[in-house]
């Protein structure tokens, strides 16, 4: 029987297909699991309950461990997330600093640039034969896009990608080199400090200008600024890379699905939502019970850790019709929990959706067929039970011999 211990042990079979583990966890209901030292919450309604009751379930241990209070005098302290680990009212105040950069309307205005970047990356694959859709596409585009939104130089996108990979090295796995991580933090802190020092006092649509203004106003310390940008960089790069990689793997493993989307491109939006639901790039996060409470009828004592499984909730048969299947005609497809729910719902969800849709649309326009060159059950997945996505998707792309390039009107992301 598949068990949570096999997933936490990072066995590839279960990282690739955690659905069976989740089904067993939902069947059992809320219970304490020593593998994660937490009460496991796997059913859809129970997950929604925890996410809504933010005054009872604190976010201060979201990434799995409750970190000590930040020490401004210690420049070597880990670059822990600023938003992710904070509760209201502090969370709401910090989020308001950058909210306007991530409104659906503002994100929609980025579509022409995102489409240009996607087209450039896909066109570079022409004539290469077999490619790796992660290495050659999914891992490259998100960091360029989040760099645009942050307002940092595009020529530094590769450095940002390397930094974000190092910063997330210890999330949901058991490895990571602490010495190397400290070196990366020093490099990133120095680089970002120089950008903040050069701020000209103008607040524009870039995230960096808004964070710099908050620092000048005394709302953020320099260390908090660095943590804030690091968090947005990781969220906008690593998780979106996993989202794109999972979508591309689905398309490359199902030729009939790819052809259906080519025939009916209006279905791409629903495909993106179904990909997010079935292959949530963040499978779960932790919470901390601040009082004695109950979840799904089970007593959870004050001080307990709670492991909230979005990936399981998104596959709950009681919440989703024909749940194991990807349905391109699913009603309410966007109601999944891949981006969380409530006050801590992902601030960059509109951007992730935009990137997912545009990449698929540009691929469909340029490429006749996409097929895996290895069995789907051999695709390697990242060594994390939190971050979820293939790290390599070898595929053969057959480009269209000729194509027109119609002018596409931007649409809301």
Describe this structure in words.
This protein is α+β, with helices and mostly antiparallel strands and 413 residues long. It has a single domain (4-399), classed as Cytochrome P450 (Cytochrome p450, Orthogonal Bundle). Helices cover 45% and strands 9% of the residues. It has helices spanning 4-8, 12-16, 19-28, 44-52, 90-98, 104-108, 111-123, 134-138, 141-150, 157-167, 178-197, 207-216, 222-253, 255-263, 268-278, 310-313, 349-366, and strands spanning 31-33, 38-41, 57-58, 130-132, 285-289, 293-295, 298-300, 305-308, 367-372, 394-399. The strands form 3 sheets. A 5-stranded mixed sheet has the order 1-2-8-5-3. A 3-stranded antiparallel sheet has the order 4-10-9. It has a two-stranded antiparallel sheet with strand order 6-7. A hairpin with a 2-residue loop joins strand 6 and strand 7. The protein is globular and about 60 Å long. 43% of the residues are buried. The model is unreliable at 170-174 and 403-413 (pLDDT under 50).
Task: State the end-to-end distance.
Answer: 41 Å
Rg computed from alpha carbons, rounded to a whole number of angstroms: 21 Å
- Indicate the percent of residues in helices: 40-55%
Strand residues, percent:
5-15%
* CATH architect. name: Orthogonal Bundle
CATH fold group: Cytochrome p450
What is the H level of CATH, i.e. the homologous superfamily? Cytochrome P450
What would CATH call the class?
Answer: Mainly Alpha
Read across the widest sheet, the strand sequence of neighbours is 1-2-8-5-3
Largest sheet: 5 strands, mixed
């Amino acid at each position: 029987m598949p068990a949570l211990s096999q997933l936490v042990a990072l066995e590839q079979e279960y990282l690739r297909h955690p659905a069976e583990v989740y089904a067993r966890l939902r069947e059992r209901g809320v219970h304490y699991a020593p593998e994660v030292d937490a009460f496991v919450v796997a059913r859809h309604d129970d997950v929604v309950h925890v996410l809504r009751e933010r005054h009872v379930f604190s976010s201060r241990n979201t990434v799995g461990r409750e970190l000590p209070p930040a020490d401004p005098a210690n420049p070597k302290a880990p670059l822990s997330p600023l938003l992710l680990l904070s509760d209201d009212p502090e969370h709401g105040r910090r989020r308001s600093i950058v909210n306007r950069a991530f409104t659906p309307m503002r994100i929609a205005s980025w579509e022409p640039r995102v489409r240009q970047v996607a087209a450039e990356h896909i066109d570079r694959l022409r004539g290469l034969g077999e490619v790796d859709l992660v290495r050659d596409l999914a891992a490259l585009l998100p960091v360029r896009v989040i760099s645009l939104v942050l307002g940092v130089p595009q020529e530094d996108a590769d450095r940002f990608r390397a930094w974000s990979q190092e910063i997330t090295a210890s999330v949901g796995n058991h490895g990571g080199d602490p010495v190397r991580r400290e070196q990366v933090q020093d490099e990133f802190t120095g680089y970002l400090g120089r950008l903040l020092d050069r701020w000209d006092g103008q607040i524009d649509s870039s995230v960096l200008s808004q964070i710099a203004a908050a620092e000048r106003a005394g709302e953020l310390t320099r260390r908090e600024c660095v943590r804030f940008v690091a968090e947005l960089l990781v969220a906008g790069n690593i998780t979106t890379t996993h989202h794109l990689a999972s979508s591309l793997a689905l398309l490359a493993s199902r030729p009939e699905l790819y052809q259906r989307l080519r025939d009916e491109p209006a279905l791409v939006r629903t495909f993106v939502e179904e990909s997010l639901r079935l292959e949530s790039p963040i499978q779960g996060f932790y919470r901390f019970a601040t009082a004695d409470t109950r979840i799904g009828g089970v007593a959870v004592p004050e001080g307990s850790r709670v492991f909230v499984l979005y990936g399981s909730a998104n596959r709950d048969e009681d919440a989703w019709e024909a749940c194991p299947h990807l349905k391109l005609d699913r009603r309410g497809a966007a109601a999944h929990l891949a981006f969380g729910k409530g006050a801590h719902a992902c601030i960059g969800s509109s951007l992730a959706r935009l990137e997912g849709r545009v990449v698929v649309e540009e691929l469909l326009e340029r490429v006749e067929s996409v097929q895996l060159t290895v069995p789907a059950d051999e695709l390697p997945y990242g060594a994390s039970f939190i971050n979820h996505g293939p790290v390599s998707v070898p595929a053969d792309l057959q480009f269209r011999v000729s194509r027109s390039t119609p002018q596409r009107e931007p649409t809301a992301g």
